[in-house]
Amino acid sequence: MRSLIIGIALFLIWSFLATWYYVSRLNKILEGPVTTEQVLPEEAADETGTTLKADSSAAEAVLSIPEKAVVQFAFNSAQFITNESLEKFISECKIYLEKKPETLVNVTGHACWIGPADYNMDLGRRRAESVAGYLKDSGLPGDRIRTHSKGETEPVADNTTAEGRSRNRRTEVIINN
Q1: Phi, psi (rounded to 5 degrees) for 55
Q2: pLDDT band at residue 13 under the 50/70/90 scheme
Q3: pTM
């Protein structure tokens, strides 16, 4: 009986250590290696003195997806005032969408909980369409913009306070790959 208990204890210790080792190795693999990119001049010479010509497509900068934009609205309104962060998002989107033709822009309208749910769903739709129209007028391709409404179903703040309701009256613009 004693050897059975010792065997079970050793098995549990071994299992714990093996799992820990596997998870720590897996995390390192998932994080990926740290890489650095070296940009070569158009022409460079290797160690033997042979002239190398850089491939401009290989040296292309890595594109990053623009952060989402959040547009706030007044109570019971689908009109908004543009801000600097929206303008920055639009300029980044133009560049990104030119390089990634399969990418879509999702515009989702939201509302606070004041009023009937079906009215808030429609208000969210109108807010999304308002922002989508602005994006199109700013030069983003209209055929790649999708509008949605979540109404009052996805609040980001507490609807019981005026500040929270104000934060929930919004439209989010997100790039989808």
Answers
A1: -90, 115
A2: confident
A3: 0.64
CA atoms in the 13 A half-sphere facing the CB of 150: 17
Q: How far apart are CA 88 and CA 82, in angstroms?
A: 11
Q: Report yes or no on 75 lying in a domain.
A: yes
* pLDDT at position 22: 65
End-to-end Cα spacing for the chain: 60
Q: Is 80:72 a contact under the CB 8 Å cutoff?
A: yes
Report the run of H or E that residue 146 belongs to, with start and end: strand 145-151
Does some domain include residue 108?
Answer: yes
Is residue 129, in this structure, part of any structural domain at all?
Answer: yes
The confidence score (pLDDT) of residue 106 equals 96
Segments forming the whole domain that contains residue 171: 69-176
C-beta separation of 177 from 76 below 8 A:
no
Number of domains in the chain: 1
Give the whole-angstrom CA distance, residue 73 versus residue 101.
30
Residue 143 has pLDDT above 60, yes or no: yes
Q: H or E element: which one contains 176?
A: strand 170-176
Q: Give me the amino acid identity at 118.
A: D
Are 59 and 39 in contact by the 8 Å Cβ rule? The answer is: yes
Q: Which residue has the tokens 């983003």?
A: 140
pLDDT, tens digit (0-9, with 9 covering 90-100), for 34-45: 444 444 444 444
CA distance 92 to 94: 6
